[in-house]
Amino acid sequence: MIFRSLPILRIAALLLALFAAPAQAQTPAAKPAAKPAPAAPKVFKDCDACPEMVVLPKGAFIMGSDLLPAEQPKHPVFIKKPFAMSRFEITFDNWEACLIEKGCTHNPHDHNWGRGRQPIMNIDFYMAEGYAKWLSQKTGHTYRLPTEAEWEYGARAGSTTAYWFGDNPDDGMINCRQCTGAVPGHRNAPVGQYKPNPFGLYDMHGNAYEWVSDCWIPHYKGAPRDGSARTEGDCAIRVIRGGSWYYFSRQSRSSSRAKNAAAVKSYWLSFRVVRELD
Q: What is the pLDDT of residue 37?
C-alpha cells in the first residue's frame, strides 16, 4: 500500500507547490549589483621635463605596525586634503633636465647600470631637496620631499597588509634581495617594471630606498597625526623608506623604516617628490 501511494503523493506535492506561489515561479532571480570599477588614477605633468605626478585622495590610515619598536606605536593619521606624488622614483632623465637648467650641480655616477629611466641614485638628502626646489621655481607650484606619513599612505594605497598586494612578498613582484621578482644582476631596475599599486604608484616596495623629509626618531611616540613631518631631534639623520634591491623583503614592507645620514649618498638610495595641490 505504501509503494502504491507514492506516485499520488508526489503529484499532490508538485501541484501544491505550483498553485501555492505561481508568481514566484515566474519571477526571475535578481542579479547582484556589479561593483563599480575603481577610478583610473589622475596623472599629470607640469612641464615636459617634470616627473609624472599622481593625485592621491584625502583619507585616513593606521601608520606603523607591531613588528618592530621603530614602527610603534601604531597610530591614526588623517590626510585632510588630496596631494600629488611622483608616479615613479625620480629618474636620471628627470635629473638631467635639472642639470641642464643648472638647478642641480651634482652629476651622479650610474654604477654602469645605465641612465635614462633608471632611478636616480648617489644623491644625498640635500640634493634631493634641491631638485624639488628647482621644480617649484620652474613650475610655480610647491614641490617637496614627501613626509614619512604621506609616503606610507601612498605605499599602502588603502591596504592594511605588509605590502599593498598582501602579506607574502612572493605574491607580488618586488626587486629585493632573494625576492621572486628580483632583477638579474642584483641592481636597480628601470622605473615602472612592476605593477603599480591601486593609487597608481610604482616601486613603492623595493628597487631603491627613498628619502623622505622627516628627521630620524626611533619610534612614533608623539608623532603628528595630520601627515606632517617630524622636524625635531638630530636632523643630520633622515628617514628613508621602501627598501631596495640590496636588502631583504622585510625592509620593503609599507611600515618599514630605516635611517641614513643626510649627507651620505648610495647606489641603493633614490627619492620621489610630492606636489601640493592648490
A: 55
